[in-house]
Amino acid sequence: MGSSISISTILILINVLVSYRGLKDHSFYEKYCFRVSQVQVQKDYKRLVTSAFLHVNWTHLIFNMLALFFFSDSIEQTLGPLSFIIIYFASIIGGNLLSLFIHRFDTSYSSAGASGAICGVIFAAIATLPGMKIGLFLLPFSMPGWLFGLIYVGISIYGVRSRNDNIGHDAHLGGGLAGMLLALLMNPSVILQNYLTILIVALPAVAFILFIIYKPEALLIDNMFFKTKRNYTVEDRYNVTKKQRQQQLDDILEKIHQKGMKSLTQKEKMLLKEYSEKT
Fold this sequence. Notes:
mainly alpha; two-stranded antiparallel sheet
């Protein structure tokens, strides 16, 4: 029990201290938050991890820390302290990598928060604890873990698809799936005991990720529930592609300005050559 409290307390303390600094010092926040342009162009990969210890406001921080406090104990007792830490950080990276893929053409996109890690811990618990029930804040009832997981995956997919709020649904989905898969690798014997729950939760998430990998244009179409549905014309697709390529060029030029020509990757040099030839 002491070990569990110690690890969760340390993580909560780090989150509070780093978030406090970020809320007080905007330049500190900007230096360590997740920002597509900085990760993709400047190769500032530390942001894939450091952003998870920043939060946009106190409500965001408190809600995440309460969730971490309530769920950390069960998964650490099941898999052990080291496995808990590995799942926590792997879920951070998994969530941000999915977010990076989804927003790869939106270099202005930024985010922060420990939600991806916490989703990874929650989904790891759902996968490795058969019969687990989850209670919701301020509600006098709990629900089976498989039902909570399925609803959460559905909300995340819907959120990624609709883009109707400022919540990082992509990081939640990627973090949750990373945490679940890693927990199963660490404790494969539980698969036979809890295979139905695992399939119910994991299959929709994996299917959606594969769908957007092979059909990325699906994320560019107006959402049928929030906006007027319309078919994208050839001109629409051309304009979207043109905007994306212009953003790529701007990022490359900014990188040259900050670090010089030698900092460009081979792919970036080829893109720059293509642009110059077309011009």
